[in-house]
């Protein structure tokens, strides 16, 4: 890969899935866009279940309310 080319989505996925830390991206609408394998395993979800899920659905009402600004 040349230094000026962007990493592929597959490479980024492999890097993120190799991390022992939970990594996820939630859009401004609180809909999940991506989560690494550590994140999905912690919540007992598959990546397909997680993507498109609203934070409220994942956390439940009580924990969701505790995380509001």
Written account of the structure:
The protein is mainly alpha-helical. The protein contains 5 helices and 2 strands; from the N terminus they run H-E-E-H-H-H-H. The protein has helices at 9-18, 37-43, 47-50, 55-59, 61-66, and strands at 24-26, 32-35. A hairpin with a 5-residue loop joins strand 1 and strand 2. The longest helix is centred in the first third of the chain and has 10 residues, at 9-18. It starts with 8 loop residues before the first helix and ends with a helix. The relative contact order is 0.13.
What is the topology?
Elements (H helix, E strand, L loop, with lengths): L8 H10 L5 E3 L5 E4 L1 H7 L3 H4 L4 H5 L1 H6 L3
Antiparallel strand pairs: 1-2
**So what's the overall shape?**
elongated
Report mean pLDDT, rounded to a whole number: 91
Order of H and E elements: HEEHHHH
Please give the count of helices.
Answer: 5
Count of extended strands? 2
Rounded to the nearest angstrom, the radius of gyration is: 14 Å
State the end-to-end CA separation: 42 Å
| Portion of residues within helices | 40-55%
Strand content range: 5-15%
Low-confidence stretches: none
């Amino acid at each position: 890969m040349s230094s000026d080319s962007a990493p592929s989505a597959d490479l980024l996925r492999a890097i993120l899935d190799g991390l022992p830390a939970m990594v996820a991206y939630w859009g401004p609408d609180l809909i999940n866009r991506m989560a690494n394998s550590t994140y999905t395993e912690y919540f007992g979800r598959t990546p397909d279940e997680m993507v498109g899920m609203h934070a409220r659905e994942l956390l439940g009402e009580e924990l969701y309310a505790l995380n509001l600004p």
